[in-house]
Each structure stands twice: as C-alpha cells, then as structure tokens.
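Lab meeting minutes (informal)
Scribe: AK
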Amino acid sequence: MPGSLRPTLLRANLLVDPLAIAGAPELSWMPEAAGPTVLGAVAVQTHYRVGASSSLDKLHAGDFDLWDSGFIRSEACSAIEFLGDIPKPGQDAWWVVRLIDADGGDSGWSDPAMWSERLEGWPCKWIGNDAARGDDGEVSFDGASWIWHPDEPAKNAKAGTCDFRVTFESTGSAVDLLVSGDDHYTVEIDGNSVLADPGGADAWKKPQEASVPLKAGRHAAVFTVKNGADGPAGLIAKITEGDRQIVSGPDWEAKRPGSDEWTKANKVADYGDAPWGKIKSGLVLPPPRLLRREIYLRGPVKRARLTASAFGIYTVSIDGQEVSDEFFAPGWTDYTKRLHFRTYDVTEQVDGDSCCLSAILADGWYSGYVGFGNHRDHYGTELRFGCVLDIEYEDGSSQQVITDEDWRTSTGGLQYADFLMGEKFDTSFEPAGWKEAGFDAADWSQVDIGAEFETSMEPYPMAPCRLAKPVLKAKAIGKNILDFGQNTAGVAIVSASGPKGASVKLRHAEVLAEDGSLYTTNLRSAVAEDTLVLDGAATFAPRFTFHGFRYIEPVGEAKISDIEVHAVSNLSRLTGQFSCSDERLNQLWSNIVWTQLMNFIEVPTDCPQRDERLGWTGDAQVFAGTATYAADVQTFFRKWLVDMVDAQREDGQYPMVAPVKVAGNDGGPGWADAGIIVPWAMYQAYGDHKVLEQQYDSMEKFMGFLRGRSEEAGAAPEKFHCFGDWVSVEGDIPHDVIYTAFYGHCADLMSKISGVLGKEDKAASYAELYSSIRSVFQREYVEADGTIKGDRQCSYVLALSFGMLDDPLKSKAEARFADEVEKKGHLTTGFLGTRDLPRVLRDIGRTDLAYKLLMRDEYPGWLFPVKHGATSIWERWNGWTPENGYADPGMNSFAHYAFGAVGQFMWETVIGLSPLEPGYKRFLVAPEPGPLEHAEGVFDSIAGQIRVAWKATGAGVGLDVTVPPSTEAVIRLPGRPEVVAGPGRHSFDSRVT
C-alpha cells in the first residue's frame, strides 16, 4: 500500500550527483512526509532498499547490476555504506531508494540520483606560462627626503626609535599617505593609528599606503620609526590631498621617545640617493595567463566530461562558454600535500566539427597575496593548469584530450587578478575570439611544462563557491558613494561605456567615514579595487577576486549603466529561518547568517575585507555550533578538518590557522582545541561518525601533545602561547585558567568520542584524565568562596561550561558569576567566553540575566551594532562608538563571525530547539520566552524540517511543533509534564506559574 514517506535529497558523499567519487560512496537521503496530513507513529522508516545500475536505462528497467541491497531493516538514512560493485574509473552509477514505514506502507522508488567514479591517475601534463611576472613598479616619493634625528648620523645610526611630527591643514576630505621607514614604522593622525609597516625583514622595502578621511581643520601626523639594529635609519613620507603634497624634509620635527623636546629633523638623503635608492611598490601583480587548444571532433558526441585542476585558480571554457559558474576552483589546500580537482559534464558544449578548449589561470592562494604583511608566493611562483577531456562518441569510439605541449599561451585583457588587491581588465588588450575555434594563435607562445612539486590529487569534497542570491542593488548617497544596503563578500559586476582609455575604478569599503567618504584604513594593505579600462561598451564581472564591502565608490570618466553586487560563498543550502517579536534580534540573526556567508569561502576565514582572510581555528571552534543552525556545513567542515590535519605539527600541536600560512603553527588554548571541538559539533548536528573516525588519530596525537606539555595532569606549563580571551572588554583572564579549562574540555570530549567509536578502554582513560584535570583546576584556580582566578566573566563561563567544578564550589561559583553579571549589567567577554556566556546563565537558572545581556543595545552588547545600522557581526565590541569613532584600524573588521556564536543560544533558548541525540534523531523543544511575545524557527535538520513556533499568552505559552518523519521531540514547557511527540504537527499550551 502507499506509504506515508517519500525519500528526497539523495546524495553520495553528501553531494548531489557528484561527478568524481573515489571508491565506494556513502549514500544518504531525507525521508519526507508523502502528504500534508498529520502522520503520527506511522511515519517512521523501518526498512530501506537501494538499487544501483551502471546506466539510467538499466535503472528504469529495474536491472540493478551494481547493487540491490534488498530490504534492510533500519531507520538509518545517512552514512549508508555502498556494498555493490564499484563502476570503472570515469563511469557513472545511477541509484534509487525506496522506504517502508511503520505501517508497512511502501514509498515506491525515489527519483534517480547518480555519481561518477573519478579518473584513474592523472594523465595530463601541467602547463603554464612562465614569462616575466612583471616588476613591482617604483613608487612616487619624488620631492620627499629621508630624515632622522639630528643627534646622530642616520646612515650609521644606533639601534633605537625616533618620532617625527608634521602638522597640516585639511579641507575635510581624505588624505593619501605613502610611507616607508628603516627598519619599522607606524603612523598616527590626531592620536589615531592609521598605518603600520608589514613586518618582516627589510620592511622599509615595502612602502605602505592608506587613505585617511579627515575633518576640515588642522591635524597632526606622528610617525614612529624603529631602527632595529645599528645601521641606516630614516623616514620618508608623503601626504597628498587633492593637488597639494606635504613631503618629509628638514621642516618636519623629530624627538626621541621619553623626551618632550621636538627639534628640526635632519635631512639624510634625497629620494633615490644611497643607501636606500629607488623603492619599488612591493607589489607584484602579474597578468593571468590565457591557455587554449583547438579540438577536432570525430562525430556526434554521446557524453563528454572535463576534469580540471590547477596550482592557482582557473576558469575553463569551451567555445567561449564557461563550463561552470564556480568561483576559485580548485580551492585552497596545502598544495604540497593535496590538490583537489573538479569534474564537469560538458556534453552539450562539445559539438560540431571542432571546438576550442580554453582556460584562464590566475594566482589565487597558490602565489597571490594571502594574509597580512604583503606576502605572496606562499606555495610557489609557477602557475599550472591541467585538464582531461574524455569524449564518448555515439559510434562507441572515444577520444581523450589532455593538457600537453600542443597548447598555446598568452596574456590578455586581465592586467592582474588578486584576492586582496583586486582585478584590472583593459578591453583593448583582450584578443577578440581567442576562446573560439578558428582563432589565429600563431603568435602565441608554447606552454611551459611541469609543476614545482608532486602532490596527491583528490576529488573536490564539498559544494563549490558560487554567486549567491539575491542580487544586491544600490542606492546612491552623497559624494558619489553607492550603498548596497548589506555588508557582503563578493563582487560587483559593472557595465560601462566610454572612448578608448576611459576607465572606471570601483573602490570598496565596509563602512563610511564621518564625512561620508569611504573608510578604508581598516583594510590595511588590501587595495580592494577593481578597474575596467574601456574601448567602447563592456561589462566586467570579476572572477578571480572578492571583497568585503557594503559601499562602492566608482571613480573615473566612463559612463556607468549598471552595477550589481553578488555575494560569493561555499554555503549552498541555508537551513535556519529565525524570527521573533523583536526586530532587533531578527536583524542580529540576519547579521550572523550574512557574516557566515561572507567568511565560508573555501575555509572558515576571520574576515573577508582586509589583508588576512585566514582559516583561524579559534574563531571556527566558537562558531561551529551556530554555523550548523544557519547552513549545511557538514562537507565544508569535513574538508577544513583535513586541512587541520595537514597543518598539524609533528609533535601533535594544532595551528592558529589552517592551512598554515602567515600565522603560526602553535594555536594555543582555545584555538588548537578546534581540532577536537569542531568534529564533536559536527557529530552533534549531523550524527557524523565518519568525521570522528577521520579525525581520531589526529585528535589523539594532539592529546599526547597536551600531556607532554603540561606540568602534571592539567597544570599549565610555565611558558606557552595563548591569545587569551581575545578582544575582551575589561582585560584578559589568566592564561593558565584558559589552558587547563580547555585541556579538561578536550579530555571530556575525547572520552565521549572514544565511546561513540566503541573504544571503551580509551574512553575510560580520557574520563580519568578529565577527572584529574578537574581536580587540578579546582585546587589551583578556585578559592573556597567560589572565586575563580581572574574573577572575570570568562573565568566562570569556561569553568561552568566545561564542567570543571564540583559542589560546593560549583554552587558558590555560580552565585559569584551571577552577581558579577548583575553588578556589571553587561558582558565583558571576548572570543572564548562569549559563546557560552548566555547558555551558562540559563543553565544556572538565570535566564533573565541571559536575556538582559542579549537585549542590551548599548556598548558592549550584541544589539549595539544593530542599533547603529550594522548588517554583519563586528570583530570588536567597540568597532565603532559615538564617543571614540572607529577602533584601532590595525584590527577592526566589520564582518567577523566569532561574536555571532550567540546564535546557538538564540536557537536553543529563544526558539528552544537542540538535539538530544546526534543528528536530531531525538530533539528537545524547550523555549524560554523571556521578554519576547513570540518566536518561530524553521530548521532543515539532517533528519528533516523541524518547525517550532510559540506565542506568549496571558495564561502561559502556546506552542506549535512539526516533527519530521523517523524522529521524536521531547517537549518541555513550564507548568506541564514533559511530553514525547512523534512525527507530525502538534500543538501544546502551558500555564506559567
């Protein structure tokens, strides 16, 4: 008889119809209600049957020549091991599933799904173009002089520091700074930090630029230069406002630190003279490489698949049509250890007698600018592209086209393309028709062959980065600024026209200066500009860069007809819709989701706008729980956790960032622990045993590192790296408290993980370690009255959240914590303490205080940025305040998801939804309304869609819950007994006492 269920969302390795699977996949589906009626206990999957065939025709005929599982008694609908025959490399497998419900009802076969086995080996050659990459051009310090303090010869100065000062009038617009100092330098204007050198050796060789908006009036710029060792020392600088320039020279003032006496600076040398000579810009921005080959076809094509990868990032086209809308392929990994490839179905594009296969190859993460400090070439300098085009003809023959010596290469309209610096496209340099068959490439060069190193080639394991909807349109505001209404990470597509040489430059910024101009100082060395140079009309859609921005300033003489903004992200399926009676909280949730979209680009980055964009581990571990409510992040984090393993040190320590570049490989407490905390969060959200198995050996290695580092079971060593409770409001807490708390938490999680994986001996061992660490924590850091060392909110949050205390100390610490929060009236925590702050208050019976903090719209608080128009989460609680303006631009992102970790509390307490069993097989619905009148959450869990909606009434709370098939909900409402609800729609009410 017809069943109450139907299987949907069929996936192989958690991907829809993937074209490159290595070996046997894990299969999954989602049982949905077959109709709108209330389902009750019938809607439980009791059996499933999988059928798999080597062709779609065989599948339709019921000829399951690869696998017929038969009916298997099981409620499982994910991580189903494929036990059939594996297709040959490059061949397809088609599959269906049918379900039996608790009443014996049969769903019938699902719609077909498929996967394809990956190619065997890597038959192509790596090709590129190693022509000169371009010289970093000379900067314009003309007219400026090198200066130093007059009390010593600057060309042979002692190690030490010197301050320089110049005052100037501004008309009330932005001034442009150009600065260099031997060895290191910083710049302040009116006491506000505006610029610093990139660090590293010979920092003076990398001059820095910044645009600083100023009010009309007089201003003072102070330059501090540190000569790191005996030898040449000096400052050279230029301040430009419109046509007026102020250059460093003997009329500037100098003084030594600690002295109050300013004196005239000493001119050491004219710009260009020894010992410094001419200075290059420090930027190397080579043009992307064009690659092409024409293919002659043998007849009608039955199937064509293209597999491609690169050391760099690429787009690939057939006869001018891109084979995919993906961005930044093949993605970011530690290329020395593994490189991903993508496979595309191009059957519809391979047609006719011939076609042209072409690619554009840009720097990307491989050799472009990544991180802070203007560093590039992190993996190598020789960009390479490789692809294999497999063609099957209708007559049964086949043809394989690979990258080899037959390809040709040149450069074109793209003058440069870089993540941090932007793209520049000059239409007059673009060879017309170069992507199409018949183009004359006689003057193009032969390709260079061979990669800089060998690496493991693996299929891309997650949803690719794509343009996200909706498209953002702008409204014009003052000073030629366009406001797109939403801080986002993405690209602006511009259509413009003009005579040859006319241009439009798009300058990007997250926020505006007080005078309404773009505020770009917080971008540090990221230029974040895209430029289109015209010869007629053109549309420019950047493909090899992205920016974090809300505002755009178009500069140039071209006539613009349209600009539209698209977000880019790897998040393809948003899962959580939150709403409540307070629009400020609705905006906060929107800000959280947008900030996650902005930073889930290949790796979980810290921010998308400035010169950083690294996969910070501490940020990821505090946000992972919230991330699972907002979007489907299972494959995203699986992939990134492999990056964590690749970045793990030999001694077991996890890094600050993964992949490891620019920042260090010693994460320290609260950062390194992501290697255990994030897999556990994935298990809770998705029931993902595989990620625990995948990471287990690495996690054990990390625990071994902690054992070896600690003085005794849990006691912090005398010296260790620790970022602390990053950007906390009232100062940090003792780092040994952080160390021991996170060590204990990891031991506790490892005990639970070992138990899940059936490793009972290890589970017991880690439980014993956890107990020992708790004893050390209480002995070393907790006083008899419950005071925890540091006596700040973070100290209590970590101790109580991680279960580090026994009664009576626990009860005393809870009371002191609540008193401290009540006395302050606001939070004081940074990255490590903020996530669990409201949850701990809820768990100790002070949900009222948790809501007080959540609803606070004054600094510091989550709704303070919302009150002032924020559309994303800020990095700092004081990113901007009315009293002080913008915080230190050296570290002040307006799209940084760490403090958005409060989203987990919003779902688990405001909506009241949390898993009781991994993967929401059994879940809790226990809303605590607080001051709110109503709330609703619609959540697409791995088990199906859950809806929770409640409304406060005069008598209590009215609650509606939709429970998906094959799950059950535990309903807890004040004033009534706990209820267990099966699949279907249910209504409850309570009387609050």
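Next up, CB showed the second protein from the same session:
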Amino acid sequence: MSMHTRRAALLAAGAALTLTLALGLGAGPVEASEATASPPTAAGQAMDPVFAAHQKAWTTKPEFSSPLVDHLPAATAVPSPRDVLGHDIGAPKVLDHYADILGYYRALAAKSGRVKIVETGATEEGRPTVVVFISSEDNIAHLDQTRANLARLADPRGLSEAEAHKIIGETRPIYMALGGLHSAETGPPEMLMELAYRIVTEDSPMIRQIRDKVILAINPASDPDGRDRYTDWYNANKIDDTNDLDPVPGAPYWGKYIFHDNNRDINYTGYSARNLLKFYLQWHPPIIHDLHESVPFLYIYSGQPPQNPNLDPITYAELPWFSNFEMAKLGQYGMPGVWDFGYVDAWSPGYVAFMSSNHNGLIRFYETFGNGGATTELRHVAPVDGPGEDLHGRDQTKREWYRPNPPYKTVEWSMRDNTNFMETGLLTALQTTSTFPDQVLENFYRKSADALVAGRTQAPYAYVIPGDQPDMTRAALVVNLLRQQGIEVGRLTAPATLKDGAFPAGSLLIKLDQPYGRLARTLLQKQDYPDAKIHTYDDSAWTMGLMAHVKITGLDDIKALDLAVTPVDRFDPQGAIDAPGAATYAVLDEGSINLAKLRYALKDVKVAIAEQAFKIGARTAPAGSFLVPGAAYDRLKAAVVPLGLTALAVPGAVTVPSHPAEAPRVAVYSTWGATQNVGWVRYAFDQFGTPYDLILKDDVKKGGLKAKYDVIIVPSQGSPKNLVFDIPMRWKPLPYEKSAKFKSLGDYGASPDIRGGMGLTGVEALKAFVEAGGVLITLGDASAMPAAFDLAPDVETSAAPAAFYAPGPIVEAKILAPNNPIFYGYADADIPVRWATSTLFALPARARNEALMEFPGGAKGVLSGLMSGADDIKRRPALIDEKVGAGRIVMFATNPVYRWQNFGEFRMLYNALFNYRALDLGAPTNKPDAKPDIGEDSAPPDAAKGAN
C-alpha cells in the first residue's frame, strides 16, 4: 500500500471515528448523551463573571475562542487560579514562576478530593518535580489499583485475553499532559492550571464524563529550572516586545546544561526528564500529550512519514483518530488555523513524550502559536521577505488538504488566544478518551501483547554484547541506558554457540520477546532511512553500538530466546589491579572514557602515558596506557576497581617511550546566543570529573589567555559570524545578572550586556593565545571559524552543495595517523562517527599531513541513517591539526561530544587534553589521497565564500 493510500485509509478511519464520536455511537447511553451535550455548561452552576469579562477582553478575535473555554465555574470551596495567583489565566504581561504554579496545585489539592500530587524527584537546581492527578473522587481513591492494572496491561506475559479484558473494564486510562518542556514556550504551564480547575469544578456533562472516565495527569512545568530563568528574563528584557520582526532574544540558558535539546535527550540525562521516565515506568499512562508552541495557530501531531517501522501499526491509526476529531471540533467552533500534517514526522524516538510510544503507549503533541511570553503582539504569520526570512516554501497560511482553514497572514495574538486554542484542543482530546476509554486501554494492551509476538517472530530475535570485548565500560553505558528505559537485559550463565557465532559466559543478552523489545530494536539496529526524498525533523540515526563504539550483534537464531541468563538490574564492571609492591603500574588503555575519571582522581600524581605498546608477561599494554608510580597504589586501587579498569604491575623499569599525562588548565568558550552544544560539553566534563572554566566574550576580549589556560575548547555554536559576533548590538543592553528581583539570572556566567560577541578583539586574543603556545580545539561548526578569520591559514572551507542533506547520520571516518596520541584507545583504523556539520574542509597538497582523520565518503561510508550526496565528502578532512606559532589549532569536523550519545568519540577530545604537549607524535602514515578533488595548493571552487 502506498503512503498516500495508507494516509487515505487512516483519514477515512479517523473520519468514521469522528462521526462515531459526534453521534455518540459505540459508547454507552451515558457517554453518548454527555459527549454530545450542548451547551457545555451545567444548568444552574454559577459562572465567574470576572473571568468571562477577562477572557473576552483578552481574546483578540471572537473566532479565537470556543464554548468550552469562554466560562469558568465560580466555585467557592475550591480556589481558582485568580484566588491564589491574583490573576486569571491569559492575563497580559503576566507569567508565573514555578513555585507559584506549584503553590496553586497544592492549594487545589488541599481543598479537593479530586486532586492528588505525587512527588517524582528534583531538578539539577533543587526544584521539586511533581505529577498532579485529577479525576473523580472515586478514581483518585483507587489510584494505586489503577497503577497496578496499567502495569499488568503493560506487561501482559501470562495474562489471558479474558483477564486482560476484565482489567480493561475495571480501569480508567491515564491521560498525561506535559507543559513547558521548552521554557520559551510559556503558555502551557499557565493553561494547565485553568484546565485543572475546570476539570475539578465544572459540572457540565462533558466534563463530568471526563472526570469519571479518565484520570488526567499534569506535569506542571517539564523544566522547572528553565521556567523560572525564562520568566525572569521575560520580565527583565522581553515584556515590552511589540515587533515580532525584531524581537529581543530569549534567555541564554534554560536548565543547567540543556537548552532546546531537552526534547532530543534520547538518553534522559536531564533530571526532569529522568524523573518523568521513572514515573512513566511506574504508572504507564497510555497517552502522553506534550504541549509546545511554535507554528500558527494549532498544529496537531499525526505521525507523518518518515515513520519508525518498529512502532505498532495501531499507533499510526490512533494518531489521526485523535487529530482528525480535534480538527473537526475546533472547525465546528469556527477556530481557524488548525492542521495536522506537513510538520513533524515519526522517525526519531528521542523526543521526551516518545517515551509513551516507545513503551507501547501513544505520543501526542501540539504546537500552538506563541509569542515567547505573555505580551500581546502583532504577528506576521505569512513569510516576510528578507535575509533568512524568505520562507515561502513553508508558508503555513496556505490552504492545504490537511489545513482547510488556514491561519491569517497577520494577526494580533495574545496569551489568551494561545490558551483558548490549546485548552479547547486538549479538552476535545479528553472527550475522545472519555468516550472510548476501553478502546484506549485495549490499544495499549494490544500493542504490548503485539510486542511479545514480534520478538518471537521477527529476526533478529535478540542482541548480544559479547562479554570478551577489551573495554566493557562503554558496554556498561549502553546497558545501563537500556535498563533506565525498562528494557530487560540478562547475562549468559554459560557460553553459547549459535549460528550467529560463539559468545562467552557473562555476555549481555537483550531478548526481544519482552514488552519493550521493539524499543530495544529501535535503539540497537542500524537505521535504514526509508525515503531520501523526505526530510526528517531531527537526527536520522542513533544506533547505540555505533555511537558508543561497542560491538553489538543481532542474533537471527531463534534459539537465542531460550538461552539461560541472569537478569541485570545495573551493570557495573569491576576493574582489577595486581598486588602491591611494584615500582610502576600500567593502566591498560582499551578505549575506556573512565581513564578521564582516573586522571583527575590522580590529578596530583605524576602519571605518564606510554607512546608504544609493550608486553607485561602474556599481556600487552597498548599505546596510551597510563603509567602510575607504585607509591600511589592505594589511590590507584580505589579508583581503578570501580571504574572497571585494569592495572598491571610492571616488572623492572619501564623502557617504552612515554610522556606526561597532562591535566591542563582548560577553558570552554561559550557565546551567549548558542549555549546548547556548550552545555553538552559541560555536562560530559562534569560527569567525568574534568575541571574547566567557562569563559564568555568579556573574558576573551580581556586577552592574556595563555597566562590562565593551556587549552581552550570552542564547541559547535553556529556559523563563524555567529560565533564571533553573536547577539547583534540592537535593542537596549541585555543584562544577564542575578539580583533580588531576578534570582534565576546570572547562573553559569554573568554579564551586564550579553550583546556583541567577542568580536575581532576576541579573535585576536585567541590568535595570541595560540601563537604563545596554547592549544585551541574547535568542535563541529566551530571548526570553520579558524579558517574564516585566518587563524588557521592552511584550512579552506566551503558550504556543502545545495542537494547535500545529512541529518545526523553515522558515517565512517578513517584514521590517517594511528600513532598520534589523539587516537590512543582506538584499535581500528576505520571508526564510526556522527556527521556534525554542513561545512566541508579542505587542505592544499603541501599541508595534507595536517589531516589526522578523513571521511572516505560514498554510500558505503554511511553506516546508519541518511546522507544524500555522500560522494561530496570523499577524502574530506575529519580532523585537522595545524601548528600556528608556538601553539596549534585542532579542528574536529565531527563533534566528539554530541549530546549524551556518541561516547565512542569522547576519548578523542580527552586524548587531545591529556596529550596536548605531545600532539606532534605519530604523523599520518596513510596520507590523504595525492589526487584529491581540489587542485594543488588551491581551495575548492566555492571556498572563498566561507561558511557563513
């Protein structure tokens, strides 16, 4: 069946279900009458006239409201948002801090038996994370039974069909709503408070049915730290924004580390996301609905192609079922600009709410039009001509088959408009769920049961991580991330021989005939992108074994399912050390990132690094192994064993050449306008105990950097122009400083004015740093900056051809200098790396020995995901080391610290740190092709254009 045929079938199914809902068919007599009751208010229930007046005044056009949200009960016993916060929701220029939001829910729970708050943990900055349950008194009283029932449906092993349907009939589905994951998308945390009050107090037939048949779970602000930081920034700098063509930039930080990527955090590193995942695996809500803001006026996710083929087909029918009904109802209310196709696809499993579909539930999300605050603004919805703004190909005001009533070309838009659209849609989604609660639960159960069948009928039937890999610490990273997501892992109790090979006892086995077997398959298999003509919203590849440089083998022998294993809760391989008494101990370098932790644990010990492999009895200590004096034995043992490393006693003197394992003075440079990728480097450094200073534009412009630092790292932060000049010198000064009024600003750096960037003064300071002997390390897109500003005169850059498209594939890189210290711990010449930039690098023939690693390119070089135009990267440098004055610039075309994912590349960056004085060792032995695509000592044809 073609994509269009499948889409037509889904639309037809959705239309039929929409008609069923509208007519009340398929539901019991109560549901049918209550679901179609009109008007939606209860006869005789007093309504709040002040709210009604505010709602009408703050809504900029009558058609931007609906009969579901134009009123609010005037309950006396239960506090409304205005009673606690002092304002109705949608008030112009008013945003609430997280403590006030949480205070409202606690006040609601204190006065109503229809509300229960569950604590789920805390954020990096110590704010509590919670989930607020709202339903009927009876449903709230039986929450523990609901939790047990949903857990049984989530893992139906041993559950008969009759037992499953009995549980379904006795259980209410949990519909979970997340608000404010992206802190600049300020409306959802406000709207959800009003929704909570409405569900608790309103006595209309529709709301009664929702309350009786569904348990609403609210995550009030999915990034509490970011909510407070952005609210302070808005009040300090954006509250008077009136020109959407020249808005004041948003806050430089949201959470401690993660900015927009908190919705790409596939491995759940942020505490808020981790707490939410833990809650999910305890409660198993069948639906998670993530509320975002961006496009006009309301986009409803429907799971368009490319689609993850591992998700149950039921999922791809459920999505348009819900979205079509919501489109129909909002259309019925006369609300324009509602659509459900042509925006976000269903390929990547890394979005936070995907934890539901990944675990056999259902992801839902909205993108509601938002202003980045609560100020009413004139918005230019249709594209506006101008540099970077000519987006007519994405004109979302055009009528399409999936957007029959498009948004207006310009509009006066308010926070209340945002609330009306979002709340009307969510109430309609709850109406669907309350009309078909058994169907929602049946689908949830069926997807869980289908996963078990798929694991027994579709090869591979399991994945194995062989237990005899030299470095099992990276394997542990993979295993523990799988376990964090609830995926079952076992260790072989005995050696196993299958048609796929022989595997020793202790190997780690992930059988796929388990409830989350489909998720394991998704994370561990190669991503075969379905259609190169279709773009994707985020990364096209994430294969964990390739990202971590861990050998993981798919098993096509069904006998793998019968192998005896010991369940693994957490895998922490223990290291070993020989007996005390030797003068020197060699800590074997098998590629473990934990060598970084070891170096900093022994920071005041004179550790050396072996420059060549050497024998210790029957064992071989690879080049890169640490040589630690025996006098530090106790400290070495205390670190080596829990880090999973091996330390061997070296008999006699060490004769192999060596050099000090440095612990350099490190700075990480961040712009103010692009802290995202810097945050991931900071996170990784903190995880591995790496000391560093975060430096910003004012620090760099002062100069004198070599007196303070040995190495400066510049993470990927956009184009060279953006990296150097950053936030333009427009608007008024933009301070980011802590004060009694703005307590959440001034964290992770401070400035009286974040505009302007380091400028040419900063570039000259970096040049002086390098010429004085410093090492400048650039990552990803930042590596185009040294060429653009002539810091690295040998390097030329060019933009990739227009047809080139590489949304984060995993590609092959060839190490040209295997003896260079940057590649200690890498046993293979060809390694997987994540493609990280749209810039292509080139070197003239006289300087080709500066390329330490290159991309072979071509279709065979694409290991997972999509790269259109793979021939364009053939023989392009992937890592350049250019000497400048007394120092050097190390330029990664890759990004060796990408999110919390590509662990196999982390060591290259750490090797550059520990060996920063010894990078002249190991010149390339396999130089780049003598006949590259560019001429001798010449740049590529379009190199002069730079990377801007």
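CB comment: The first helix runs from residue 3 to 23.
No objections, moving on.
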